[in-house]
Specification:
This protein is α/β, with parallel strands linked by helices and 222 residues long. The chain is built from eleven helices and seven strands. The protein is 54% helix and 13% strand. Strand 4 (63-64) and strand 5 form a beta hairpin.
């Protein structure tokens, strides 16, 4: 069938710490014609395997033994920037949804979704569409509108000004580009890009790239 042939070019990695659920989802996707190239049960394993196989789509659980799905999403996009992440989680909590999207996830489904809905969502995610369980898209849109309309807090601590180059690098980090890719695009060395990232983290008093990405989104730099 033509649809199955098209889906065979879509490679998928499933990240979930429950073996029966993970294997079941992988089996359903394989039977639907997708190529399941890897599975993983945690942040570290998922990042290493994503770097190796560069999947088209990652199905990501939010609760992992060595971190959460947002951290895993940011790290995977750092090593495989063309990958699209679709969260598949039991949680529909506002904070989980927003954290995942701010880390770079394309969409968010709850695990009550049917197999047919999941298959359609993976196909849509691979094509660049944002897929959400009904109600969650409105939540995300509402949050972005709130951020855009919130006036600056005069009592908030002053954020040091970034240089033009630091802002440029920050914008690319928020898009999920790796330091190597940023270096290529800007004609800089890998070390220079890393120096800009570390300088920006220090200036903004942030701990890692996930927080840096969240800051960029909140400032409208993505």
């Amino acid at each position: 069938m033509p649809e199955t042939t098209a889906q065979q070019s879509i490679t998928v990695m499933v990240v979930d710490d429950h073996p029966m659920w993970r294997d079941g989802v992988a089996r359903d996707l394989a039977e639907a014609g997708f190529e399941v190239v890897a599975t993983a049960d945690g942040v570290g394993t998922a990042t290493r395997r994503a770097a190796a196989v560069q999947p088209s789509v990652v199905l990501m659980d939010m609760n992992l033994p060595d971190g959460n799905g947002a951290t895993a999403t940011a790290e995977i996009l750092g090593v495989s920037p063309r990958t699209r992440v679709l969260v598949l989680s039991a949680s529909a909590e506002r904070d989980d949804v927003l954290e995942a999207i701010k880390a770079g996830a394309t969409g968010y489904l709850v695990k009550s979704a049917s197999a047919a809905e999941l298959i359609d969502a993976v196909r849509a995610t691979a094509s660049g569409q944002a897929v959400f369980t009904p109600g969650l898209a409105g939540l995300v849109l509402g949050e972005y509108r709130r951020i855009a309309s919130t006036p600056p807090d005069s009592d908030a601590p002053h954020r040091p000004a970034l240089t033009e180059r630091e802002t440029e690098v920050l914008r690319m980090v928020a898009k999920g580009l790796s330091a190597k890719q940023i270096a290529t695009r800007l004609g800089l060395s890998h070390r220079t890009v890393e120096n800009h990232v570390q300088s920006t983290l220090r200036k903004l008093q942030l701990g890692n790239r996930v927080e840096l990405t969240r800051y960029a989104i909140e400032q409208g730099l993505e």
